Amino acid sequence: MEFSIKAGGPEQQRSACVVVGVFEPRKLSAAAAALDRLARGRISEIVRRGDMDGRSGAVLMLHNVAHLRCERVLLVGLGRERELRDKVYRDACRAALSALGDSGATDALVCLPEVAVGQRDTAWKVTQAVLIAADGSYRFERMKSKPAASRSRLRRLALSVPQRTELDSAERALQQGVAIGHGMALARDLGNLPGNVCTPTYLAEQALAVASRHNLKADVLETKDMEKLGMGALLSVARGSVQPPKLAIVHYAGAGRKARPVALVGKGITFDTGGISLKPGADMDEMKFDMCGAASVLGALQACAELQLPINVVAAIPTTENMPGGRATKPGDIVTSLSGQTVEVLNTDAEGRLILCDALTYVERFEPTDVVDVATLTGACVIALGHVAAGLFANDDALARELLQAGDAVYDRAWQMPLWDDYQEQLKSNFADFANIGGRPAGSVTAACFLARFAKKYRWAHLDIAGIAWKSGKDKGATGRPVPLLTRFLIERARAAQAAHAAAGR
Fold first, then answer.
1. Which residue from 13, 60, 203, 501 could staple onto 52, CB 3.0 to 4.6 Å apart?
2. Percent with pLDDT over 70 in the chain
3. Conformational region of residue 150, where left means phi above 0, alpha means psi within -120 to 50, and beta covers everything else
4. Model confidence at 11: pLDDT above 90
5. Does 217 participate in catalysis according to the annotation?
6. Residue 82 CB neighbours (<10 A)
7. CA pair distance 108, 97, nearest whole angstrom
8. Which positions ≥6 away from 135 have C-beta within 8 Å?
9. 470 has which bridge partners?
10. Which of 364, 411, 472 is nearest to 131 (CA)?
């Protein structure tokens, strides 16, 4: 879909459909009122009759309204004007775009509401509209022999901002929204592929493909490389699979070679049976999504490159399958990690932390300013936070605040969880330095505490995305989260670095 920004009243625009808001109870937005004046009161007459009362998410399509230059007018309910908040605005955007998809319109002009959405500005409204449009138009039919024809004819979407002074910020917001949308689509495509297609080799190849498209440096470590380095934790997870493990490293150098990078580490378990600690059969097919952390890191890196952000980023993607077999790691086995620390594997289904810990140690060599790992790590996080927010753990409060604010800014939210030393007691082992699980209580916390033992040399944060990376049921599929959060974090970090550089130059 093509996106653009326009300024000026909707009555001046020629379009297949103009989308305007109606507040509850039956109050036209400024854009709707402008159309109504040109239509000589026809729209307000329809609203007065009760066909559209302004309830949040309600829609009404009007055809061939006299005296207007557009073929259709779509009225969208925005609820009460004083109560227009994030969710109401997003729901209205989603309802409008769904109605446009069901119509015959090939292009549309969406008039953003002139009133504030809570504390949000016009740029936020633009980005959210683009992301919701991208989400609604996404389809994954690559594996079908006969992909269904798209119902929607909508190809071009223009967003009209209330003031011309907002054009520049709206254009930047549009570019960011488009880049994030592309990154989310990549992450969703990778997540939705079945495990027999998206193997560790395939995932590593896709990392190389992203690097090639954007002229980035990339390397892939093979089994022999990991054995030579001593990545015993990562290799222990791969032992039961015939698929060889990989560690893909992609470098984005938008700030020059001398600037220290931010490192993103994504869990890439392309299929997780649980290993010898075998999972129940029900819903095991969804374990193809256990590489969504890696997919989101690749998606964010692609968005960063598309936006040409002045920042350096290293993406590390450890990837393998977790399978049972005669060579598979057994409960009670002890493995030696790249850091030299030994781990008693009490449960082979707690494998994500084992591949991440070696990757966390490996990225030390790049001297990162900060490291953020992203993983579908624990079912306990789903119990704690459901499918709304990612769990955030960090050894630095300032980094945690940056990530929380980035998530809030793009409505891809996280919630900070404790990382207190008290929980480390649960990881004690009689036979190794520590165990890979700490029992049922606070499972997501003890998993983060395990990772924290390998992240003591830099500022580090961990995002547990087990509850947000995919949906089940009739809407089953990868969501592309937290690509928006990660990309916004990198955007703000690049902006801060530029500001600091400018200040130093003065």
1. 60
2. 100
3. beta
4. no
5. no
6. 8
7. 10
8. 181, 184, 480
9. 478
10. 411
Amino acid at residue number 215? N
CA angle 116, 130, 483 (to 5 degrees): 105
User: CA 342, CA 326: separation in Å to the nearest integer?
Assistant: 23
In whole numbers, what is the pLDDT of the chain averaged over residues? 95
Residue 119 contacts by C-beta under 8 Å, 6 or more apart in sequence? none
Q: Which of 27, 279, 330, 471 is catalytic?
A: 279
What pLDDT score was predicted for residue 149?
Answer: 72
- Which of 261, 244, 239 shows the shortest CA–CA distance to 252? 261
Amino acid at 344: E
* Nearby residues of 486 by Cβ (< 8 Å), 6 or more positions away: 264, 296, 297, 299, 300, 372, 374, 406
Within a 10 A sphere around the Cβ of 34, how many other Cβ atoms? Answer: 17
pLDDT tens readout for residues 210-263: 999 999 999 999 999 999 999 999 999 999 999 999 999 999 999 988 899 999
The amino acid sitting at 278 is L
Alpha-carbon distance of 318 to 406, in angstroms, equals 25
CA dist 323 and 125 (Å) reads 45
Q: H helices then E strands: how many in the chain?
A: 14, 21
SS3 of residue 78 by DSSP = strand
Give residue 14's pLDDT band: very low, low, confident or very high (50, 70, 90): confident
- Predicted confidence at residue 506, as pLDDT, reads 60
For the chain, what percent of residues have pLDDT higher than 90? Answer: 91
Q: Taking Cα atoms as reference points, which of 11, 86, 101 lies closest to residue 56?
A: 86
Whether the pLDDT of residue 356 is over 80: the answer is yes
Distance CA 411, CA 484 (A): 8
Backbone Cα Rg of the chain: 25
Examine the residue annotation and report whether 353 is marked as an active-site residue of this protein.
yes
pTM over 0.85: yes
Residues recorded for the chain: 506
Q: List the catalytic residue out of 72, 125, 353, 459.
A: 353
Residue 140 has a pLDDT of 94
- Give the integer Cα–Cα distance in Å for 229 and 331: 24
Angle at CA 134, nearest 5°, toward 269 and 90?
Answer: 105
For the segment 373-382, what is each residue's pLDDT rounded down to a tens digit? 999 999 999 9
- What is the spatial distance between Cα 170 and Cα 350, in angstroms, rounded to a whole number? 44
Cα of first residue to Cα of last residue in the chain, in angstroms, is: 43
Answer for the pair 364, 344: CB distance below 8 angstroms, yes or no. Answer: no
**SS3 at position 319:** strand
